[in-house]
Amino acid sequence: MLRTKLLFAALSAAALTAACAPVVGQNGFQAIDAKPADIVAGTDTKQTVLTKLGTPSTTSTFERDNIWYYISQVTEKYTYNRPHVTQRTVTEITFNDTGQVAEVRTLGLDDGQQIAMNGRETPTRGRQLTILEQLLGNVGRGQLPRTDENEPGQRRPD
After folding, report:
1. Residue 26 and which of 8, 32, 57, 61 are 20 to 30 A apart at CA?
2. What residues does 89 pair with on adjacent strands?
3. Residue 102, pLDDT score
4. How many other C-beta atoms are found inside a 10 Å radius of the C-beta of residue 101?
């Protein structure tokens, strides 16, 4: 009897501590054979970077495909809470005009900036229609007036 109670208490304690473990998720770029830190400025080219790391997560919008970004992050989620980013790595590879690597930078979670989003909306003209006005808005309006067939811009019957 005592042994059963101790076994039940041990299993309950194990279940309670297992429930506190976070669910870890890894998103984005996953280094398989080579790491972004293995890229050497001045010797590697776009082709060798593609061979070692694969396609970048994203490229620069304004620099004519001269900057490649490899982005990865690790999130942790406890039970019903939202996922929390615990680690983020952004590797920025800059190429010169000849296609050789000019610079390799690694940015972390501390290098990011919080941007306050503006939730305001632009007002539109007119008034808000109720659901009934939207559903029954065209009832009883009749047809559009017909136009003369010989006016410019109108389709002529064949």
Report:
1. 61
2. 72
3. 93
4. 20
